[in-house]
Amino acid sequence: MGKKVVVGMSGGVDSSVAAYLLKKQGYEVIGVTMQIWQDEEEFVRAENGGCCGLSAVEDARRVASMLQIPYYVMNFKKEFKTYVMDYFVEEYLHGRTPNPCIACNRYVKWEALLQRSLEIGADYIATGHYAKVEEHPGGRLAVKSSVTAHKDQTYALYNLTQEQLSHTLMPIGAYTKEEVRRIAAEAGLPVASKPDSQDICFVPDGDYAAFLEQAAPERIPAEGNFVNTEGNILGRHKGITHYTIGQRKGLGLAMGHPVFVADIRPETNEVVIGEDADIHTTVVYCDQVNYMAIPDLEKPRRALVKIRYAHQGSPCLLQKTEDGRVKMTFDTPVRAATPGQAAVFYEDGWVLGGGTIV
Fold it and tell me: Could you give the dihedral angle defined by the CA atoms of residues 136, 349, 103 and 178, in that order, rounded to the nearest 10 degrees?
């Protein structure tokens, strides 16, 4: 009997092909969709979007049936609300821009799902992420960039622990998206041409401000002042939850030239407006650091650092500060380093580690 693996099935082509490949490789595969929607209304609303809505369950069940593997829906509503939705709300209310997919990966998929999978006798969990888990030359396990830079998802996985990585399989990291779709079509999987989900699963329309107003109506910040970097009032903003660092559109300020959100100050309820130069910097700090390919940052080290998911990465020098944070000094200025987002350190495609920008 092959080793047992629980595949997190979102109903999409990537996780479906992951399950198909693992079964072909001789694993005993169990398909699981995580139930994370909070109530029936949301369940219905999520039909057409997100990775764990109603259509996700129907599609995943069809694929599992075709692959002749057991399939279950596991309830992770409580964990998802605590570690993803509540965190999302708190970050915005404190003037930061959260990354819910990173939180979901770390605390829901690789903590709650992995724990439950081990309890039912599984050796591994597997996902349809475009990434690879391999042993780094230094001897530690690490996530490595997939063969397809366009779809690479290592940025959202920097927070995983050695223990979690030792129980993780990512079978599609060796393929491009086109190859994955072709494998699905050749295998006759019903989701071969299903479009990718784009939005945050619990905000399918992309309107974060409306979600926050619904989630924490009594705590939504009131309107306040737009100020320039000298502190002069420029106009009124709609509330700090409507803005993020580097934002140019939707400010409603007639300045005669492009201006950007340079800072958000929840303590004074101000949104600072600046020029393009004001949102570029060569020095960025991050905390809550998770080291992956390396056990620690014992001495200054060069790396390529991504400061957001779509960032190509910029060369910089990493230095550990006395309080455990990491100071990143970039060779050339980076644009809109946003508090709350992740900074992920790379070397030759390996994830060295990462942290939360402060």
Answer: -120
